[in-house]
Amino acid sequence: MKIDYQEPSKDLLMRIDIHEKYGSANIDVWTNDLLKPQAGMKILDVGCGAGKLSFLFNEYTKGGAQITGGDFSNELLDKAREKNKKVGANIDFQFLDFNQKFNFPDNTFDLCTSAFAIYYASDLDFTFGEAHRVLNKGGRLFVSGPLPENKQMFYDIIKEATNATIPPMPGSSRFKGDIFNTIDKIFAKTELHKFENHLTFPEVSPFIDYVRASLGEDRKLWTSMFNGKDEYEALIGKIETVAKKWIERDGKLVMTKVVGGILATK
Ligand SMILES: C[S@@+](CC[C@H](N)C(=O)[O-])C[C@H]1O[C@@H](n2cnc3c(N)ncnc32)[C@H](O)[C@@H]1O
After folding, report:
1. 49 Cα–ligand 1 center, Å
2. 87 near 111, Cβ under 8 Å?
3. Can you tell me which atom of ligand 1 is nearest the CA of 97?
4. Contact (CB, 8 A) for 57 and 43
5. In ligand 1, which atom is closest to the CA atom of 16?
6. Looking at ligand 1, which residue's alpha carbon is closest to its atom 27?
7. Relative to the CA of 115, which ligand 1 atom is closest?
8. Is the CATH number of domain 9-265 3.40.630.30?
9. Whose CA is nearest to atom 10 of ligand 1?
10. Ligand 1 atom closest to 49 (CA)
11. What do you get for the CA distance between the two ends of the chain, in Å?
């Protein structure tokens, strides 16, 4: 299955910022508690985007791990490299397309991570086979992504506003099934962990910022719902009307993110 997924940096950074401002729990703490990366480890972060996880591990290990971040978006890699310079880190950010052979020898890394990314792979056996190949024996793979019950309220508002069918989301529809099963088949041991985060919006505008950063035309996930800028704005207007109605009724909007973490050992 080919998925033509694109992530503009402004949308990704907006969503990260909204999670930080309105979330009740911190996914970074959950990730570090689960993985406890150590100085001296070699870590590969696949689909690293602007480097969120790579910088998290760099900070946690006080610069002691050897970290490589790979992504196929040059725009996001540039953002990551800018930050690398700014914070004086030494992370190697490089081009990596997870639908192609990874450019590393067998048995190179102790930890391979991918947050909200690798599940967009076209051929799961191939991509997770590559992750397995580049890991050392006993090395760990960690993949996070949305579970099917993720942000139900977000989809309910869109459904009420449009009466339209929500397009299938490659992450949540495949995470617990195909993705877990593929990893489980290839790796020696596989566990599923869960993280919940309640995002509470006291007013409509940050919620609409989140909607815009999720439905943007460039991401190519929601384009079945609109054609061109005017239809897009009309769609956002309808969602805003329903969100206002909900906030008048409930006093706030609460969207619960339900994230799965697949942790596997080679
Ligand atoms: C939702 S973002 C997550 C980024 C980052 N891991 C984070 O947690 O902020 C998804 C990332 O997957 C990357 N991506 C999508 N398809 C890819 C591919 N075929 N190869 C490498 N990266 C890809 C996108 O460029 C984007 O950076």
Report:
1. 5
2. no
3. 20
4. yes
5. 9
6. 49
7. 6
8. no
9. 117
10. 27
11. 26
CA 251–ligand 1 middle distance (angstroms): 35
Buried b (16+ CB within 10 A) or exposed e, 114-136: bbbbbbbbeebeebbebbbbbbb
Residue with CA closest to ligand 1 atom 26: 49
List pLDDT tens digits, range 145-155: 989 888 999 99
pLDDT in tens, 12-46: 889 999 999 999 999 999 999 999 999 999 999 99
- Report the 10 Å Cβ neighbour count for 32: 17
pTM attached to this predicted model = 0.86
Ligand 1 center from residue 226 Cα (angstroms): 24
The domains of the chain are located at: 9-265
Rounded alpha-carbon distances, angstroms, from residue 158 to 24, 87, 202: 23, 39, 19
| Separation between Cα atoms, residue 258 and residue 250, nearest integer Å | 21
Which residues approach ligand 1 with their CB closer than 6 A? 5, 7, 12, 47-49, 52-53, 71-73, 76, 96-99, 115-117, 120
**Ligand 1 atom index nearest CA of 53:** 8
Cα separation, 220 vs 142, in Å, equals 26
HSE-CB for 15 with a 13 A CA cutoff:
16
Torsional class of 40: left (φ above 0), alpha (ψ -120 to 50), beta (otherwise): left
**SS3 category, 185:** helix
SS3 142: strand
